[in-house]
Amino acid sequence: MTDEAHTHLLPACPRQRMALLVLLSLHVLVALTMLINQVRPPQIDVAQAGIPELTKISNFLNSLVYWQYLPGWALLAVLSAVAWGHLRYAKARHVPPDRRERVARRYRGTLVITLLALPALKIPSLVDLLAWPRAHALALLLCLPTTLYALWLVHHMQRFRRVPVPLLMRALGWGAVVAGGFGLTMNEWWKTFSTLHFPLPENPLDLMLLKDTGLPMISGFSEELGKGAGVAILFLLYRRHFDSVVSGVVVGAATGLGFNLGESITYMAALDGAGAGFHFWARQVAGLMAAHTAFTAVTGAAFGIARQLHSRPQQITTVALGLCTAASAHFCNNAMLDYVAKESRKWFTSSDTLNVLVLTPAQLLLFQSPLVILYVLLLRHGLRSEAGGLRVALTTLPPSSRDAITEPEAAVLLSPARRFRLKVDALRAADNPRHGITAYRRLARLHAAQLDLAAERWHSLRGEADPFAPDEASSRARVQAIKADLVRSGP
User: Fold this and answer.
1) Which pLDDT value is given to residue 349?
2) Which helix (H) or strand (E) holds 386?
3) Deepest in the core among 102, 268, 319, 357, taking most CB within 10 A?
């Protein structure tokens, strides 16, 4: 790295720069909504409306939507100016390049944390949190077990090489915090914009219809965009862990589960938990693996497919189609659920029990099952593709890797059932539970390292090797080190 490169505040890696650009794009969209509010034509005649305080109310509501963004952006500008000046001063004083890079890395981390924190302050709504803190805490305690169980299921969808658990936790956190805050910001903007900046209806009670008109579309596309941005950032920063459509589905589903967690807590805690039971059933039980999980799993699948394409236009088109599919399905789901909820009372009379246990699951099945079927089929196809690719990679290993993965071990790697049985046998053969768990974990580490080596070989044969992934020699050395540890530990 040159001396000049160490003085840059932006990251030197192109992928990191692109990830930062994706994060900044969310803030640009928020700024765009602020601009729309400022340049909108005055469509309300306050005098004719007979509400003299409407202008003050409008300005107050508009300010609430962006209460944290304007101070946050000002703080970002100040931090950027200070960082630029500090790095220029350090260069003028001939500070060693490695020290300047450490300083730049600290400033960069502070700026990124600030960018992430601004939308995060929306989750949950500060007013709601102050009004019902106990309800939010109880909702969190109720939703965490089901969400973690669903994340465990998503993680075990992978039969061969698995996405690391820390990466899935980052996806979960992005969906719950950053994507949730961005989606809430866009929804609040539309609610204030639609009710205060469109012509008033004759009946003041119809104001709520203006808010509802267009909200399913705004929420569907903005929420999927926020979640898709998280998948894109993880794809750029951890591309070597995206092997195929399977990895994309898993990361996308984890992001959707995080968003569903944040949304469930918000709805369950509203009005001090008045509708907590219904929302827990609908969002954490009946619709846990559907809804946001299914929508973002399709977006993630698009990134997994793009990982295996060599043409940049094809990659962009695939990702765009996946995101549009998820957003359109989300919009249709919101619109149809709202329509059915309003019109079903005219069609027939039902009890609350029948509505919760029968009608709600039936609606979720009708409007969300197409996306669930789609991501399950994509997952099934991806698993078959991975099995075939790993089989080819294991049969064409170079002689230098034959000690790391022998022929009998290759047969075990291709069979998830045999891998599990081998680990269970090691667990049972130990003289005490502690040694058994240690043996189980060591075998799991060995299988994971061998699958990493085989997967990188597969990507190399396809001409899609990631330059940031460990080379074959490093992966082989890791496998041999784990094998040596197993030999030393004994049976």
Assistant:
1) 62
2) helix 360-395
3) 268
